[in-house]
Amino acid sequence: MSYKDDIKALAQLREAQQGKWASISPENVARMRAQNRFQTGLDIARYTAKIMREDMAAYDADTAQYTQSLGCWHGFIGQQKLISIKKHFGTTKRRYLYLSGWMVAALRSEFGPLPDQSMHEKTTVSGLIEELYTFLRQADAWELNHLFRDLEEAQKAEDKARADELIAKIDNHETHVVPIIADIDAGFGNAEATYLLAKQMIEAGACCIQIENQVSDEKQCGHQDGKVTVPHEDFLAKINAVRYAFLELGVEDGVIVARTDSLGAGLTQKIAVTKEPGDLGDQYNSFLDGDEITSASDIDNGDVVIKQNGKLVKVKRLASGLFQFKPGTGEDRVVLDCITSLQNGADLLWIETEKPHVGQIAAMVNRIRAEVPDAKLVYNNSPSFNWTLNFRQQVFDAWEKEGKDLSAYDRASLMSAEYDDTELGKLADEWTRNFQRDAAREAGIFHHLITLPTYHTAALSTDNLAKGYFGDEGMLAYVAGVQRREIREGIATVKHQDMAGSNIGDDHKEFFHGEAALKAGGKDNTMNQFG
Questions:
Q1: How many domains does the chain have?
Q2: What are the binding positions for Mg(2+) in this chain (predicted)?
Q3: Is 300 among the annotated ligand-binding positions?
Q4: The model's pTM
Q5: Are 352 and 496 found together in one domain?
Q6: What b/e string do you get for 332-364 counting C-beta neighbours within 10 Å, with b at 16 or more?
C-alpha cells in the first residue's frame, strides 16, 4: 500500500472511533508503519528467501550475476555495511550478510574469546541474527525518517513538486534488510538439537542456513588441522532437520548450504553403516585407510575389520579412537559429499579449500556438475589464506610453465614488499581483483563471502587510532584520521546521535506529546555543528 493510501485507510479507521482517537494522526501512523516494514523475523526470512531464490536463478542464467557478502559480528557493523552499499551503489541487490560461527565464538561468547570449535553458547547464533536485523530495520527507519522530515519541510513550503518527489522515494524505498547466510556449524549436537537451533535461527530471520559435515563435539575451524567428518547418513539427517524447521515455520523456499570439510579432513569418528556393496555407506568406507588381512591371526586386540572392495581390511585406528582416511582421497570424498548432499535436499554447496585457486575449485565442481548440472557454490574468500603470497606464487608457477625468466624472483619470499611494484606483483594483484568474477564464471561460485573481515578491520583501525592518539598526534589522530574523513566522505555516523535514533525519538515525542514534547535536537545540540 502506498503512503497516501495508507493515510486514507487510517483516517477512516480513526473516524470510526467517534472522536476517541482524535489525537492520533493518520499521517504519523502511516509514517511509523513505513519505517517498520517487517513485523517479525519470519517476515524477514520469507522475504529474503525469495530474494535468494531469484538471485540463484539469475546466476544460472548469467554467471556475472554472482552475489557477495561480508561477515559481521555486531548489528552496528552489519548496518553500516548496508548503509555504505546503498550510498555507493544505489542498491543492495545481490549483496548479503554472512554470520560467521568463527566470529560468534571469538567475539560474542560469554566465556570470552574462544576458538572456532562450537564451544560457544549456541543461542548466541540466533541472537546475533536477531540483532543484525534489528539494526538493519533501524537503518530503514533512520533513512525514511530523513525523507519524512524533508517531506514536512516541502509541504510547509507548499512545494508540491518536491513533496511528490519525496513521496515517490518513500513508496519505492529499498530496504536495508538483505539475506543472511547463517553458520550453524555442525549442528551443535544431534539432529534434534540441529532442528531446534535451526528453528530459532529462522524465527530470528535466517532464510539460509549453512551446515558442515564435521562431528559436532570434535568440530574445528575449516582452516585448522584435526577435522573429523561424519558418514553421509548422519549429515543428511541434519540437512533433513533443517528442512523440517523451514517447512514447519512456513519458509518453504528456505536455502540450505551443505559444507564439506573433506578436502582437509583426514579422520572420521565412525565407520558408516552399509548393507550392500556400492551403497552410500560402502562408498564412504572405501576411503578408509587400512591393511589387508588374510587370517584371524592378523587381528590384534581392539582392531576393527571391514570388508572393502571384496577384501578384509584392518582399518587404521588412532589412539583417539578415530579412523583414518587414505591419503590423497580428499578431492574424491568432496565430490561424493557434494553430489550426495544436493541429491538429498541441499540447495548450495560450500567446499572448504586450503587456498584460493580457481582451477582447483573448478576441477571439483565440474565433476559434481556431471551428476548435478546446476550445482552452485558458496565460497569462503577466507582471511586465513595469505592472498598476496598465494596469487604471487600462482603467477610464478604459470610463468615457470611458460619458460619465462624468473631469476629476479624468489618464490619462497614473494610476500616481500620489494615485489609490490614488479610485473609479477602487479599481475598477481590483477588476478586477485578478478578472482570472484573468474571463479563465478569458471568454478560455479554463486556466492562469494569473506568470513571475518570486520574482525580484522576493527583491529587495524583501532591500532591506527591508538598509535596516534596515545603518541605524538594526540587528538589530531582522531580528528584527522576519523572525524575529518567521516565529514568529507559523507559517513552518516559523524552525526552519531542521529544514527543512534535521536531524531526518530524526537519525532515520536512530538507524535505522543504534541507541543509539550521535550526534544533533544534543539539549537544546543552539538550535532548541529556538522550541518
A1: 2
A2: 183
A3: no
A4: 0.92
A5: no
A6: bbbbbbbbbbbebebbbbbbbbebbbbebbbeb
